């Protein structure tokens, strides 16, 4: 039984209810009155939808105002049933699926009971029909059947016949009167013709109780909680299956948004957009080799004239510079791949295992394209990197050459006095590396390839010995720096220029492209960030819009007993289904996605390694969608979403 004591409710300073006190028990209870008299406000209060009022309402001793969220959802699933003038059914589901909705919060769905209720209400033959194909009278019977599945103690009906014709109105009232024989039925109506002499009447006028006290109020025993009230994972996935089937378009939009966002994030994080600007640099490296990244540091050199012999524009100039200490500064720099000393040799003879190998001289400083075996000489012992052409003349493999000792002799030019003096020197050193000594040079617009077969690179210890034998006292030795990237090359060049050092290298080929690429990378980085943010915002916006479009659906869930915990699980199973479908769709369409990214960015993003990242990004965006949808559910106000009248 309901006991209502001195209940008042105001809207904008005006009373919708003013000091109402009454009781309602088993049987038919009609709340009547003109529009704005407070009928719907009283209904909201006794049902717990509005707990902000003055006074007290109890049901079987339980204070309705003090119901927790969990208790309220229990009441809505087991004690209170609701019948609405707008039916409030899930239109795209079948009759049976609507009727079974409250049962998802039970351990198992009682379909046998559902069939019996449908038979009693004479709509069993409509069980598999979608609700949106039914007439108004049929829909109202489906709504009643759904509430009877709760086996409620109270049925609260808000204008249940206002949308029906006379025949269906009578049928609906007959059903409610039949139910009231062993339950409390509360009907809000403005149609007094529906009321018979056996019913209790609560007549309201401008928020005040004006009718005589109702008769035959039967007290009901103290409220007990016994029914199970939880959503299992199995039932959550069953609901998800029904929702996907009934709203496949909505599901497909969510799946596509997740997949597109995942691909866009993958494009952003993988650097595909930024790397699209690397094409020119890669082309240069493939044309000129890794030596393109070399910076030569020499103590003196003579500049060359211009290619058009214009002496005024590019005059000859002798350059001398102090490079002492620079080698030690760059030998361990993280931007440097390796360093090597540039010592030219002449009349080279090499003896290995007693056999002498003459080396054809070029008269130039050694050159290295790339190390193809072993390592560069960095130890304190006499170590050397030899040309691969020399190893071939020995008739052994590069790996077999590593560790062998050579007796090396050559002539070395001593420039200490300003005039070259040739001196002979020799040393025994261990081979620690083998190098490809191909060099590339542009001649008359064509790139020509040369091999410098007398390129021997010694460790500092070994080179100090050879230079000492030649009487060279200048400790500063010319050396090269192999930068890790063209960008590092230009950065080191700029750094040396600031120190007053003029390095040698193919800077003109690289610099403009590197600086343009840095600018492009910065711009593409900003574009990537924008695309990444846009991808996440797109999914969240779609989830939020979809969520607010589902507010009526969420409200129906709530009056069926679903609370935030139940919906969190349902939301989770929906998002898991969407995420798994999006991942599968991405895998199936990856060849087409690669074709698109190749056309846009000259790169394929969905290779075997990146697919895992793509899966992770879809899951991550799915989490954002999950949280956004949860916000929409939490913000759904039941009475507003279900349009329960004015007052």
TrEMBL record:
SUPFAM superfamilies, A to Z: P-loop containing nucleoside triphosphate hydrolases
Pfam families: ABC_tran
Transmembrane segments: 251-274, 527-548, 579-597, 617-635
InterPro entries, sorted: AAA+_ATPase, ABC_transporter-like_ATP-bd, ABC_transporter-like_CS, MacB-like_ATP-bd, P-loop_NTPase
Superkingdom: Bacteria
Keywords: ATP-binding, Lipoprotein, Membrane, Nucleotide-binding, Transmembrane, Transmembrane helix, Transport
ABC transporter domain mapped to chain residues: 2-231
Coiled coil ranges: none
MF-aspect GO terms: ATP binding; ATP hydrolysis activity
Family, as annotated: Belongs to the ABC transporter superfamily.
Protein known as: ABC-type lipoprotein export system, ATPase component
Annotated organism of origin: Psychrobacillus psychrotolerans
């Amino acid at each position: 039984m309901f006991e209502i004591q001195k209940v008042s409710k105001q809207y904008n300073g005006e009373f919708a209810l003013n000091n109402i006190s009454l009781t309602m028990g088993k049987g038919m209870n009609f709340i009547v009155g003109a529009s704005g008299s407070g009928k719907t406000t009283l209904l909201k209060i006794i049902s717990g939808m509005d707990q902000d009022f003055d006074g007290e309402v109890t049901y079987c001793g339980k204070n309705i105002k003090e119901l927790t969220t969990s208790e309220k959802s229990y009441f809505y699933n087991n004690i209170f049933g609701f019948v609405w003038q707008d039916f409030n059914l899930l239109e795209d589901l079948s009759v049976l699926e609507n009727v079974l909705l409250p049962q998802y919060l039970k351990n198992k769905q009682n379909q046998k009971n559902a069939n019996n209720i449908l038979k009693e209400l004479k709509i069993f033959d409509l069980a598999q029909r979608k609700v949106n194909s039914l007439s108004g009278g049929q829909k109202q019977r489906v709504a009643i059947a759904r509430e009877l599945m709760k086996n409620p103690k109270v049925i609260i009906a808000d204008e249940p016949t206002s949308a029906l014709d006379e025949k269906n109105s009578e049928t609906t009232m007959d059903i409610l009167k039949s139910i009231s024989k062993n339950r409390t039925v509360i009907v809000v109506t403005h149609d007094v013709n529906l009321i018979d002499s056996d019913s209790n009447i609560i007549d309201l006028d401008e928020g005040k109780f004006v009718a005589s006290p109702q008769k035959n109020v039967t007290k009901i025993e103290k409220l007990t909680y016994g029914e199970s009230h939880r959503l299992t994972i199995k039932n959550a996935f069953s609901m998800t299956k029904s929702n996907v089937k009934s709203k496949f378009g909505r599901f497909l939009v969510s799946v596509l948004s997740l997949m597109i966002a995942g691909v866009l994030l993958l494009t952003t994080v993988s650097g595909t957009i930024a790397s699209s600007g690397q094409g020119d640099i890669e082309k240069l490296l493939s044309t000129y080799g890794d030596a393109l990244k070399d910076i030569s540091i020499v103590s003196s050199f003579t500049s060359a004239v211009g290619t058009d012999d214009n002496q005024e524009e590019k005059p000859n100039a002798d350059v001398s510079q102090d490079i002492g200490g620079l080698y030690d500064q760059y030998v361990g720099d993280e931007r440097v791949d390796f360093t090597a000393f540039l010592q030219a040799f002449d009349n080279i003879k090499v003896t290995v295992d007693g056999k002498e190998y003459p080396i054809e001289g070029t008269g130039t400083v050694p050159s290295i394209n790339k190390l193809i075996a072993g390592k560069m000489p960095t130890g304190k012992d006499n170590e050397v990197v030899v040309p691969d052409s020399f190893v071939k003349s020995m008739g052994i493999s590069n790996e077999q050459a590593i560790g062998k000792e050579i007796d090396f002799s050559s002539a070395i030019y001593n420039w200490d006095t300003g005039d070259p003096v040739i001196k002979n020197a020799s040393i025994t050193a261990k081979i620690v590396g083998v190098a490809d000594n191909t060099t590339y040079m542009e001649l008359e617009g064509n790139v020509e390839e040369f091999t410098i077969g007398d390129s021997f690179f010694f460790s500092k210890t070994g080179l100090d010995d050879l230079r000492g034998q030649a009487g060279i006292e200048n400790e500063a030795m010319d050396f090269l720096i192999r930068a890790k990237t063209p960008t590092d090359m230009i950065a080191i060049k700029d750094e040396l220029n600031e120190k007053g050092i003029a390095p040698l290298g193919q800077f003109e080929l690289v610099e403009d492209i590197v600086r343009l690429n840095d600018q492009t990378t910065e711009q593409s980085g900003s574009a990537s960030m924008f695309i990444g943010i846009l991808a996440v915002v797109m999914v969240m916006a779609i989830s939020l819009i979809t969520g607010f479009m589902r507010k009526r659906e969420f409200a129906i869930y709530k009056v069926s007993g679903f609370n935030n915990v139940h919906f969190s699980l349902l939301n989770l199973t929906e998002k898991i289904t969407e995420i798994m479908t999006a991942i599968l769709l991405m895998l199936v369409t990856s060849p087409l996605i690669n074709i698109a990214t190749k056309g846009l960015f000259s790169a394929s993003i969905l290779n075997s390694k990146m697919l895992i990242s793509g899966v992770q990004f879809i899951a991550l965006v799915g989490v954002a969608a999950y949280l956004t949808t949860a916000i929409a559910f939490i913000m759904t106000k039941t009475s507003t979403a279900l349009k329960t009248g004015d007052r």
